[in-house]
């Protein structure tokens, strides 16, 4: 998934660094889960995972990838609907995905508010999705909700299907990287017909727990070996950047406003989008959370100064900073930094006293 700060391409490097530094354990708290890619990686490595995020679409991904430990059978659903598939060996999930790719399109909330035809009365019609793909998203999302309401899905199956949709949508969104704005001309991928994709099911023998709340409120109750922090690096809040994924996940017909059709995100703001507040929050976490090792992923363009981060963390144990270059996320290539192709990942490692 296209997501600012996504560690999918960095997590192997981060893991190798932690291994080389002797940062080991059996439990891992992904404090700002986002796409859940870091939690997924460490789940596959055998860790018990705790993860949390304020964004509901992140919670959906966490439920499907992190908390779920079973290959879904869709037993109730498959006994009720007639599904024809081209493969005799298709998994239950693939059979359901194939079925959802054949259902009639519907003109629901996404079509009505985020496609050119649905918003033709606006001064600037919204071009987040093609007319066809807006209807496909609505049809799939409504069908999943109907199955849930008819008690044809287990909780895990419900979140797995929602995750399939959340993971598919970015491949067809007419955006440059985030959903704070749509492109004024059609991206080639945005005009292709949306085809739902199945997600990977990750099975482990650990009881993994996920949360949809401010992780700071969890620090008193979660004990972990590795506490991993990957906060926002700049003043831009995550919620408005991903408002459409949030709306598709919740499908709650929110009040929206502005050219981009933004939903309210007042209760989903991060303190780390302000340098002073971020340092105070970091101090609170480092002081009061229960962990052996705190690992902070940051980068060289972050708003919290390196010396102040080291000073805050240094109050609670031995701190080490490891830095390495990585390719800049496309939508961050603006302003004076536009000509920079690489930025430095900063990995602050705290061994707590």
From TrEMBL:
Keywords: Methyltransferase, S-adenosyl-L-methionine, Transferase. The keyword Transferase applies. This is site-specific DNA-methyltransferase (adenine-specific). It comes from the Bacteria. Its EC number is 2.1.1.72. Pfam families: MethyltransfD12 (PF02086). The keyword Membrane does not apply. SUPFAM superfamilies: S-adenosyl-L-methionine-dependent methyltransferases (SSF53335). GO terms for biological process: DNA restriction-modification system; methylation. One of its GO terms (molecular function) is site-specific DNA-methyltransferase (adenine-specific) activity.
């Amino acid at each position: 998934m296209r997501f600012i700060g996504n560690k999918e391409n960095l997590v192997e490097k981060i893991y190798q660094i932690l291994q080389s530094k002797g940062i080991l354990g059996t439990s891992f708290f992904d404090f700002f889960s986002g796409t859940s890619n870091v939690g997924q990686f460490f789940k596959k490595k055998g860790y018990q995972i705790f993860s949390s995020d304020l964004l509901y679409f992140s919670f959906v991904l966490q439920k499907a990838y992190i908390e779920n430990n079973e290959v879904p059978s869709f037993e109730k659903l498959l006994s009720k609907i007639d599904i024809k598939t081209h493969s005799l060996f298709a998994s239950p999930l693939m059979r359901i995905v194939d079925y959802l790719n054949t259902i009639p399109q519907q003109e629901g909330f996404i079509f009505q508010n985020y496609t050119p035809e649905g918003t033709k009365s606006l001064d600037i019609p919204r071009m987040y999705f093609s007319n066809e793909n807006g209807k496909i998203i609505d049809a799939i999302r409504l069908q999943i909700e109907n199955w849930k309401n008819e008690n044809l899905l287990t909780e895990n199956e419900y979140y797995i299907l929602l995750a399939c949709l959340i993971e598919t949508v970015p491949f067809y969104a007419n955006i440059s990287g985030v959903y704070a704005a749509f492109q004024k001309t059609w991206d080639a991928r945005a005009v292709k017909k949306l085809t739902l994709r199945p997600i990977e099911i990750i099975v482990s023998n650990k009881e993994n727990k996920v949360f949809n709340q401010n992780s700071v409120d969890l620090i008193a109750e979660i004990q972990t070996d590795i506490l991993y922090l990957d906060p926002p690096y700049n003043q831009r809040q995550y919620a408005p950047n991903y408002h459409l994924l949030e709306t598709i996940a919740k499908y709650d017909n929110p009040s929206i406003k502005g050219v981009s059709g933004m939903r309210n995100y007042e209760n989903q703001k991060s303190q780390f989008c302000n340098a002073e507040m971020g340092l105070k929050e970091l101090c609170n976490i480092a002081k009061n959370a229960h962990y052996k090792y705190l690992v902070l992923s940051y980068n060289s363009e972050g708003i919290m100064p390196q010396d102040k981060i080291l000073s805050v963390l240094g109050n609670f144990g031995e701190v080490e900073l490891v830095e390495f270059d990585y390719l800049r996320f496309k939508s961050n290539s603006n302003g004076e930094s536009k000509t920079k192709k690489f930025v430095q990942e900063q990995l602050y490692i705290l061994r707590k006293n």
